[in-house]
Design brief:
Elements: H1 3-10, E1 16-19, E2 22-27, E3 30-37, E4 45-50, E5 60-63, H2 79-84, E6 85-88, H3 100-112, E7 115-117, E8 120-123, H4 125-128, H5 133-149, H6 160-168, H7 172-182, H8 186-199, H9 205-216, H10 222-235, H11 238-245, H12 253-264, H13 271-281, H14 290-303, H15 309-318, H16 322-333, H17 340-345, H18 349-368, H19 376-381, H20 392-402, H21 409-415, H22 420-433, H23 439-442, H24 453-469, E9 478-482, E10 488-490
Antiparallel strand pairs: 1-2, 2-3, 3-4, 4-8, 5-6, 7-8, 9-10
Helix pairs in contact: 1-5, 3-5, 6-7, 6-8, 8-9, 9-10, 10-12, 11-13, 12-13, 12-14, 13-14, 14-16, 15-16, 16-18, 18-20, 20-22, 21-22, 22-24
Length: 497
């Protein structure tokens, strides 16, 4: 047999004579070289060489009986392969070429005497010695099949083929061992986590770690990051999420903000913690998608999160879009802080003017909806002047509804204006929120030959309204309260008795 048997096998593949002792055949697109090797004193044999795909060049495969050192040996978890072939590589992703079929062929061929060298897969002459045509054909079919399928095609994700084995190899021991190896590499851990994110359906420590790995991974796609954050925000406590949120970069911040804003709408939402997280993510400077900014402001409003006041004030100045400004204004008006005047002092004149003009109407809408307003509305009312007269009725209505009538001195200042419109707005406002102290201011306005009739009539109506609310008010009564010297003071207006 020997050489004669090989010649018979080659006849079916149109062999090409390369030189006097070498033939070339092609089987299924795989090139096979057959070299006649003659040893002195023995019949000539045939050496078979099948080049392997260059993508697996980093895999060094050594028959167990020829291996010298276990130093850097990698085990696959496939007991038969690990017994027959020792594997070495510095490129962990190339293990993805070791599919179940590849491993089975390697075991069979290495047990038959095959080896892998610099030229590829090799059958030494002694391997085929004494074999008949059928067995030679079988060997030839298997070496070419191995060369055909033992490839590594990863594309952008180098570890994708290996992850396929980790998640889908039919041998559980292989899945476990390859996962263990993959966990040694940061990039592979990212891919492992992506797989966990796709599969996970429940809240547990393992799923948190996988989700967190993808959420913070620079290599994750937007879709993968969104999927991870959706589950993180839906399942886990804010306290646990905060370290992750602190690491979110500008690229993913809008997406995480959107997830947190949605969570804030749940009945059991921890509004304070969510607002704190959102403030760490809130964009600085101009621009930003309006829906995101409005969502941020809405959460700060619901949480009455005073710590966000600085961001809200800056956003009011940086963003002139009406809907964004309205949302920012709503949030500021419900803040319970007593530092309202200090906030306003932070604003440039133009922004302050815009806020004075808009806050009354926004505050009125909030008050009509039953919201509890903070001190900012009163502070803004104190900045109203002749230029903001159209806003006066809104301020008056908001203060009346919210129980913040209190000091109506800002209206009294408008009474001294030369503008009839300003005087009328102030008089009508005092009729709604004024008290006994304002009777002395209004009474002179009901008289005077030169005073306009509309001013007199408005003042009379305002006095009547105040007296209806305070029936015991007496104009010019003595207030029996001690002054700094222990004497009596005369009230500027009446007292209720």
């Amino acid at each position: 047999m020997g050489l004669a048997a090989w010649k018979k096998v080659m006849e079916g593949y149109a062999p090409v004579l390369v030189d006097h002792a070498t033939w070339q055949i092609t089987i299924g697109g795989v090139s096979v070289r057959l070299e006649v090797v003659a040893d002195r004193g023995s019949e000539a044999g045939v050496r078979v060489v099948v080049p392997l795909d260059g993508s697996v060049a980093a895999l060094r495969l050594v028959a167990a009986e020829r291996a010298l050192s276990e130093g850097a040996r990698l085990r696959t978890g496939d007991r038969e392969l690990d017994d027959a072939v020792w594997i070495y590589t510095d490129e962990l992703p190339t293990l993805g070429a070791l599919s179940a079929e590849v491993r089975s062929l390697l075991v069979e061929l290495f047990r038959a005497g095959a080896s892998v060298g610099a030229e590829g897969l090799e059958l030494a002459p002694w391997v085929s010695e004494g074999l008949g045509e059928a067995r030679l054909q079988e060997l030839l079919t298997k070496v070419t099949r191995l060369a055909e399928i033992m490839t590594f095609r990863a594309g952008k994700r180098r570890f994708a083929p290996l992850m396929g084995l980790v998640e889908g190899d039919p041998d559980p021991a292989v899945r476990r061992q390859l996962r263990t190896l993959a966990e040694l590499d940061p990039e592979a851990r990212q891919d492992l986590a992506r797989g966990e994110v796709r599969r996970t359906r429940k809240k547990d420590p393992a799923s948190f770690e996988a989700l967190a790995t993808v959420a913070r991974g620079a290599g994750a796609s937007r879709a993968e990051a969104r999927g991870a954050w959706t589950k993180l925000v839906a399942w886990f406590e804010m306290e646990r999420l905060m370290p992750l949120i602190a690491e979110v970069g500008p690229a993913n911040a809008p997406m995480v903000i959107g997830q947190l804003v949605q969570r804030a709408g749940r009945p059991d939402a921890e509004l304070g913690a969510i607002a704190r997280a959102l403030l760490t993510l809130a964009p600085s400077g101009r621009g930003g998608e309006p829906t995101m900014l409005i969502g941020l402001a809405a959460v700060f409003e619901r949480a009455r999160y005073v710590e966000a006041a600085g961001w809200l004030l800056r956003r009011f100045g940086d963003d002139e879009r009406p809907l964004v400004r309205q949302a920012v204004m709503r949030a500021l008006l419900v803040m319970p802080s007593g530092g309202a005047d200090a906030w306003l002092d932070m604003l440039p004149e133009a922004d302050l003017r815009a806020m004075v003009l808009s806050a009354g109407e926004v505050g009125r809408a909030l008050a009509e909806a039953g919201a509890t307003l903070g001190p900012l509305l009163g502070a803004l009312a104190g900045r109203v002047d002749e230029r903001a007269v159209p806003a006066v009725p809104h301020y008056v209505a908001a203060l009346a509804l919210s129980g913040g009538a209190g000091d109506a001195g800002w209206l009294a200042r408008l009474l001294a204006s030369d503008s009839v419109a300003a005087q009328l707005a102030a008089i009508e406002g005092l009729g709604v929120i004024g008290g006994p102290a304002d009777l002395a201011r209004l009474s002179p306005l009901t008289r005077g030959i030169l005073r306009q009739r509309q001013i007199k009539d408005a003042a009379a109506r305002a006095i009547a309204a105040i007296r209806a609310r305070h029936p015991n008010a007496v104009e010019g009564a003595l207030a029996l309260s001690g002054d700094a010297r222990g004497g009596l003071t005369v009230a500027e207006s009446g007292d209720e008795r």
